[in-house]
Each structure stands twice: as C-alpha cells, then as structure tokens.
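Sequence in, structure out.
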Amino acid sequence: MGEIGIRHEPEKLFNMDESGFDFGGKGEFVLAPTKELMKGNPPRLTGNKKERLTAAFCISAAGALIPPFLIYPEPKPINATFLDNAFPGTEIQYTKKGWMDSATFLLFLRHLDRHILSDRPVVLLIDSVSSHMSVDIFQFAKEKNIELYRLLPNSTHFLQPLDNGVFGGLKKSWNTVLRRRLQEDPGAKTTKLVFAELLNKAINGIDMKRAAVSAFRATGTFPINKNRHGPEIFATARSFEQEVGLPERSPQKTSAQEAMEVFSSILSTPVRAHYNKRMLEGCDVETSPSFATYRRLHMRAFGPIIEANAVTNSQSTAADITVSTSIGDCCQLPMATPRPRRRKLDLPNHVTSPAHIKSMCLKTLQKARKLGEKEKKAKAKYMAAKGRETCKLCKRTHPKTSSEAVDWIACDVCNGWFHVLCVGNIQITVMEEFVCIFCKK
C-alpha cells in the first residue's frame, strides 16, 4: 500500500469474497425437555435446507459496502424480477451451477468499477481461488486502476476481513430474518423471488460500517499491524511439510514380542495361566489349536521355558520356530502410500503487476500455439486417413506438380480445403487466418 500511496486512505482499500446463504437457516438455543423425556429433537419450522444461493460482498476499510453481487444458477428467467425491495444497486448474474467462475468474476469487477466513488488507484484483496486468476481479469483491473492483491493460500481464516468480522454477524442476522418470517407466516417459502429482499433485511440488521472497520483492524490489514499475527500461525503444518511414515519401533521390543502382546490380549487370564503352566511342564501336545501358536510365539519372543525338573519332548529350537502366516498377516502395520502432490500455482501477491501480466500473456500465447499445432496435426491425420478430399482449386486429391504427400490448408470462412502448392505455397503461422480467393470475392 505504501508503493501505491494509499497507506493512510482506508476508502481505497477493499476486500471481496463470496459466501453461500442457506434457505433453511439455523435455529438458536431453545428451552425444551431433555431427551429422556422427549424423543428426537425439539420441533421447529425451517425452510428448504438443501437450497442455497451465492452472494459476493465487497467492503472497504472505511466501512463502505459495495452493493451485493448475487449469483443464481441457470436458466435465467424471462419475466421474473428478483430485485424487488433489494439493496440499492444489487446485481444478479447467472452461471451453470450458481458458483463464481472467471467470466462472472470479470463481471463483478465491472460492477465494482461502477460503484467505487473514491479516486484511483484502489487495492482489492482477494483469495487465491482459480476463478479469480486469469489474464482477462488482470488486464481489465489494470485498465481501471484496480490493483489486485491475493492473500496467502490457507490463511483467509485470519487474514481476510470479511471472514473475520462481517460474515459471522451477517449469517446470524440472515437466520434471524428467516426465523421471524416463518413465525409470522408458517407457510412462507424462501425462494429466489424473495432472496434479495431478505438479504437486504439481513444487511440492515447489523451495523455494517462498524463491522467492516473492526474486521480490517482485527486482521491487521488497516491500520497496518505487522505484530497482529505471530510467526507460529504462518508455520507450515507437519503433515504438509514431510511425509508421514511408519511409527518407529521400540528397540526393546521385537516383532515377535509385539505379536505376542496382540495375541495375548484376546485370551482371558485363566487361559493364559493354563498355557503358561503347560509350557512349564514341557508339554508339546495340546488339544487346543491356539496353544501351539501361543507356545511358538512365546518361545520366539522370550526363548524356551525350561526348568530343572521339566522334561522337554520337543527337540526344536527357537530359531527353527516360525510364526503362523495368519498371525503374521494380522500383526503387520499398514504401509503409507505416497500421494502425488498437486502442482502449486506460482503467483506473486501483486497479481496485476506489469511483469506478472506479461508472463501470463506469454503463457497463454504458448498454450494457444501448442493447441494450434495439435489441431493442425489432427487435421493432417484426418485428411491422410480420409484420402478422398479434393482441392477446391485443382479439383484433385494431389496437385499435378507432385504425386507425393502434400500439405493442406483450410479456409477459416468456408472451411474448404486447398493444397498449399495450389494457393502459392504461402507461409501462415498458427495464429494467422487464411481466407481463400472465393471468400475474398
């Protein structure tokens, strides 16, 4: 903000974010009988919980509120009017799923540009959602002197003013409006027709200016407070910093001892005492099938139990004893499977800087060239497989001057195909258009 010159001008610092509003609302604490006296939850009137609409809000550090920008799912109605008794200046746009996308965010910037009353330039704080990141958005914002700054990823819960001091109170006011409406008219339904009107009542139910100023102060955004958040809150979590491997095994315990503990935990105390007594007697034959497994695990973990008066009928040693396959499979620890890490976007904080816009334009041009080359190869492959297409000039599959495979070119107006040799062996790049002599006339 110091570079742009708005360090002491709160009316030029804005924050934008979207939030969804449920039609069902949320109930408050009520006095009701306990669950022992009443089955189920206390009854209350609610709307349609499954339906919700998205609204984009924008506030300034001085407390100004830009009119809401509502996003409705398609299709767009023909005769219905959704802005009756709405907040002055409210705008509605329609998307396929009712969510914000790049094209809709560009329309929001146009909406913001019409309602900014302060001098330019201004700063708009946004999150790092992919729908906010495109070359068209950055270029339009730069033309209108709107400098876009993105907040650090995974930090909006303590850096974004709207999340820290506005949306909480606004959602409570929204639930209160829905609850009072149902109390006055239990049969009333919350639909798209009345959403803008109810949202206006919810906005008027809170002190928006005070909430906005407090939210910027709480996040340390304005006035700038670098000591508002300590370094520990920005530290990366261990689960993202390093892969989680298997727990380290205690050096005092072997795998056989751990298997012995697992197996002994399912045996009752009298059974374990009976098994230990048999082992002290040197018994090697037992009707219980679990005794052999218990004896082998015990001998492998702690060695053979031999007393002076005991007679051992088994001549096997601990080294020759093997653990049962089923017991070994049950005692294996789960292996951690590494997951491919998602590719992170290498974006600067100031996304409307000239250097970043230039790099984004170059990347877009490179993608377009690759797509053009891929399309050119696909067309050539199609023509080679078809083999029956004729040139609109020579009316032949191959030109008279060549019997080998030749290059083809298509007119961007009539989609007709021509031999490159027939049109004069012209050089056309991927991004240029080709118009045949028939369409030029």
